[in-house]
Amino acid sequence: MKSKKILSLGVTSFLAVMALGTSAWAATTVQVGASGKTYASSVVNCAANPTTGVQSPVVEAGLFNPTTKVSATVSLNGTAVASVTNVNPATNVWLADGKNTVVVALNKKTADSYAFTVQPGMCALPDTSGNTFSADGTLEYAASNKSYVTVTPGCALNGATGQAQPYVNLFDNGSYVLNVSVNGVPLTQLSASRPHTPVFLSAGQNVISAANGSLSIDYYVRDGGDGTCVLP
């Protein structure tokens, strides 16, 4: 797959919402349309809308491996929002709550449609004001005291992506069974037999949760920067 220009969204979503529709999966973060010439994000992210300054749901859409002089119109729910070209092949599309349809139209005959569903409040970050920190400031403990996580991200090779990414270590603070998720996507389960795990961070804000069944849910928020790092 050739490289393509991707806009930086700056923040990832609290709850990742799968993109549905007629397009085919190209990767874990991007889906390519049936024409093979356009793409859109595979999940809804959250970022500060430059118009309002408020964290809002957003996806990226545009041209996939564009050739010279190609262009397309990007629309949301039937209203044009941007034009993309081989020079500027991508745009952010800000979504509303509920069902959204993003279309990237090369011409009247060739247009790819991508459907997204946004749950109300998906861009609201969880309340972590009850969390506490160790005396040296290196560890953050959940209000439940059932888990804790390192404060400053390290850098390591993520075997799942093959890229160097920032990460934090999450620990089970006892013999609890904790179901760990990142941005709403299940990651692993911690217990007495697996008391800790690295959690790799995507670009922007990441919400890490550790749920002890229905008894409690621990939350941590970490900034993954641009989602990449340089190995020492």
Report on the architecture of this protein.
By secondary structure, this protein is mainly beta. It contains no helices and 21 strands. It has strands spanning 20-21, 24-25, 30-32, 38-41, 45-48, 55-63, 71-76, 79-85, 90-94, 98-105, 111-118, 132-133, 139-141, 147-150, 154-158, 163-172, 178-182, 185-190, 196-200, 205-212, 216-223. Strands 2, 3, 4, 5, 6 and 9 form a six-stranded antiparallel beta sheet that branches. It is elongated and about 60 Å long. The relative contact order is 0.16. The model is unreliable at 1-28 (pLDDT under 50).
Main sheet, how many strands, which sense, barrel? 6 strands, antiparallel
Instruction: Give Rg in angstroms.
Output: 19 Å
- Mean pLDDT over the full residue set: 86
Helix-strand category: mainly beta
Q: How far do the termini sit from each other?
A: 28 Å
Query: What is the beta-strand fraction?
Result: over 45%
What are the salient characteristics of this protein?
21 strands, mainly beta, six-stranded antiparallel sheet, disordered N terminus, about 230 residues
SSE layout and pairings?
Layout: E1 20-21, E2 24-25, E3 30-32, E4 38-41, E5 45-48, E6 55-63, E7 71-76, E8 79-85, E9 90-94, E10 98-105, E11 111-118, E12 132-133, E13 139-141, E14 147-150, E15 154-158, E16 163-172, E17 178-182, E18 185-190, E19 196-200, E20 205-212, E21 216-223
Antiparallel strand pairs: 1-11, 2-3, 3-4, 4-6, 5-6, 6-9, 7-8, 7-10, 10-11, 12-13, 13-14, 14-16, 15-16, 16-19, 17-18, 17-20, 20-21
